[in-house]
Fold this protein.
Amino acid sequence: MSRPPVKRAHSMRKPVSRTPPWVVPAAVVAGIALVIATFLIIRWYTTPLAQPPLAEDPTQRVVATITSLPASEFDAVGTGSARNTIKAVTGTPLTGPGGRPEVFYYGAEFCPYCAAERWPLIIALSRFGTFSGLKTTTSSSSDVYPNTPTFTFHGATYTSQYIDFVAVETSDREGKPLESPTAAQQAIVSKYDTSGSIPFLDFGNRYVISGATYQVDVLSGMSWQALANALQVPDSSQAKAILGSANLITAAICKLTADQPASVCSSPSIQAIEKTLG
Amino acid sequence: MRWQLVSLIAALAGIGVSVYLTVEHAATALACPATGVVNCEAVVSSSYGVIGGSNVPTSAAGIAWFAVSAGLGAALWRRPHLLVARLQLAWAAIGLATVLYLVYVEIVKLGAICLWCTAAHVLVLLIFLIALPRPDQGEWQ
């Protein structure tokens, strides 16, 4: 005798708890949020603190070190890791207060890119003349590349028998107004610095540079003395960046001075760069 | 399958964002004003804006990654396939790992966030989440 077929219930099994479909994606998003929070904490711990400005004597030692590098080192570095962003322009030749071709700098103390560019600019200009009154400072603490060590042109003077150097630092490292450009300087900036970015360099209205010519991060976390020491080693990343940039600036200045002084402008590396400037 | 259509659209959007960042990279100077932490110029123009010291922008790798993702998303949208789905998950995991590294660079190394980069990173995350196996549709979609 066969039993009548038992009608199967629709579900004989006890329901098993299943993972809702949103759990895994939510766990992934939560994990990523945790990782990002960790990154923020690392950043908070590793951000370099603002270094207090150096006293006068250590500042002079640093300046003396970076402005007395041997010519052979400049030749060894060449353009190094610098970006040649020199642009040829046309206009009435720019002459300075002394009647010599003028190199015009327009920047601000808070700006990390200006902080970077002052190093090669000081080194290059010191091959044609002498700075006095340079003081150390750092870029803004709240901008990218915070507290980048540098110098300020505010209050400094420059003398040379070949060129005049005029600098305008529009703001201090806190962003407060410091110096205002004259109407003529503002006209130069408006005409040649069309992107409105700083640092801006004008070489006698013949060449201009907008922005830094090397990556700022090579200066990160370094002191002025450490940078000065690194610049004495041609293979260091700082020397390749800063001395490479200094060579670019030197070549642009040599174009203004008709290759004077020869001891600077006739070097193979400067001559090679000059050929690319047009 | 409709999620794969979303994945395909996200990949196409990612290609657009990466192309924009590549063009931006070519035009960017190392310059201020670039104040604040939301700063594409600082990120794109940094030494991390190129692949391994070359001249190839990092965003160019983004174009390639999103293009492959679009291909995988399109294939799965047309017809689900286990092998392709696994490939999509592996590819998306590589993308997500790269995104985490790039976010590390932005936050820790540069201290600057690029909004366009973040848009691309969110799209990578979205594609990864879609590629995950979903329990309500079997092991794989």
In short: The first strand of chain A starts at residue 87 and ends at 88.
